[in-house]
């Protein structure tokens, strides 16, 4: 009888140990299961943003696979097909390019609209940032200060006083209703066709730096703005469409990891247009790696430990 009891005790202990091991394996598998695929488009700003996101997620217990250097339509399709779980997108890009809607200049209105329409696509917009990579009118900082021009309204007033300034713009943007023609109409001024110098996209920055033109069109977070001592004129009537960056997540990924919504809030809260221009500058002009720039930004903002 004692032998039978001893055998029963041994069997019970063995089963308990097996159960404990199984539980530990399940827990371990669950932890290693926290995997996300982060996507990115094919330009510097996206490389930096995706690296910020990837490093931050890794520091918060996720395994991260990075899929970078994709065309805009490709990464969007990858998100819809859940080949990537999340990436940084721009409100205006989603409204106009993907959903074929009219652009909106009010950042909050654009964000609310894109949240609504992309919900039907199975995508969730987390908080939008104050990073607005939209069109801009630029001047050399020294010239703008000399003329007392800080806003597009200041520019309009200067030209309406009978002064002349030359503008560098690509041929399409110079004639589009949401380009220079629209700006002139909204702010009530004209450069005059003889003062508009049409040139290839990307040449405006150097032409402005070298004094070939007085004003130029551009994109608000371009690293050359800082490198060439240029300034963005404030669009004080909010004419240009909103292109605020925000993290888009596939709905099934968010269902699996609902903590992402709160976890990623600080990224949107701390990134803005000025900051992004500086980060782009560090990569494009100072030739630092995206990883180095992203990690330093995260540590400087207290989001991860050094």
UniProtKB/TrEMBL annotation:
Keywords attached to this Swiss-Prot or TrEMBL record, sorted alphabetically, are: Signal
UniProt key word Cell membrane? no
Pinpoint the ABC-type glycine betaine transport system substrate-binding domain residues.
34-299
What PROSITE patterns does its record include?
PROKAR_LIPOPROTEIN
Cited SUPFAM superfamilies: Periplasmic binding protein-like II
**Molecular function via GO:** transmembrane transporter activity
Could you tell me which InterPro entries the record lists for this protein?
ABC_Gly_betaine_transp_sub-bd
Signal peptide interval: 1-22
Kindly list the GO CC terms recorded for this protein: ATP-binding cassette (ABC) transporter complex
- The answer to whether keyword Cell membrane applies is no
Q: Name one Pfam family in it.
A: OpuAC
**The protein's name in its UniProt record:** Glycine/betaine ABC transporter substrate-binding protein
**Native species of this protein?**
Mesobacillus boroniphilus
């Amino acid at each position: 009888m004692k032998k039978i009891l001893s055998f029963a005790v041994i069997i019970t202990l063995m089963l308990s140990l097996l159960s404990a091991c199984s539980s530990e394996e399940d827990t371990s598998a669950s932890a290693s299961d926290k995997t996300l695929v982060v996507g990115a488009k094919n330009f510097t700003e996206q490389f930096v943003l995706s690296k910020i996101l990837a490093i931050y997620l890794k520091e918060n217990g996720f395994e991260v696979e990075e899929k970078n250097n994709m065309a805009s339509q490709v990464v969007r399709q990858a998100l819809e097909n859940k080949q990537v779980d999340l990436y940084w997108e721009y409100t205006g890009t989603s409204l106009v390019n993907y959903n074929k809607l009219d652009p909106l200049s009010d950042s909050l209105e654009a964000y609310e609209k894109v949240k609504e329409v992309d919900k039907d696509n199975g995508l969730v917009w987390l908080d939008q940032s104050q990073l607005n990579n939209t069109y801009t009118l630029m001047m050399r900082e020294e010239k703008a200060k000399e003329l007392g021009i800080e806003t597009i309204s200041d520019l309009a007033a200067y030209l309406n006083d009978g002064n002349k300034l030359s503008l560098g713009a690509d041929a399409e943007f110079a004639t589009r209703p949401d380009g220079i023609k629209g700006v002139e109409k909204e702010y009530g001024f004209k450069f005059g066709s003889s003062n508009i110098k049409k040139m290839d996209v990307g040449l405006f920055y150097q032409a402005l730096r070298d004094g070939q033109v007085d004003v130029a069109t551009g994109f608000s977070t371009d690293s050359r703005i800082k490198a060439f001592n240029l300034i963005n004129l404030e669009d004080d009537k909010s004419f240009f469409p909103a292109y605020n960056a925000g993290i888009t997540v596939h709905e099934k990924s968010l269902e699996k990891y609902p903590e992402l919504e709160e976890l990623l809030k600080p990224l949107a809260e701390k990134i803005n247009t000025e900051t992004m221009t500086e980060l782009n500058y560090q990569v494009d002009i100072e030739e630092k790696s995206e990883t180095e720039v992203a990690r330093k930004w995260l540590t400087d903002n207290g989001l991860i430990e050094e």
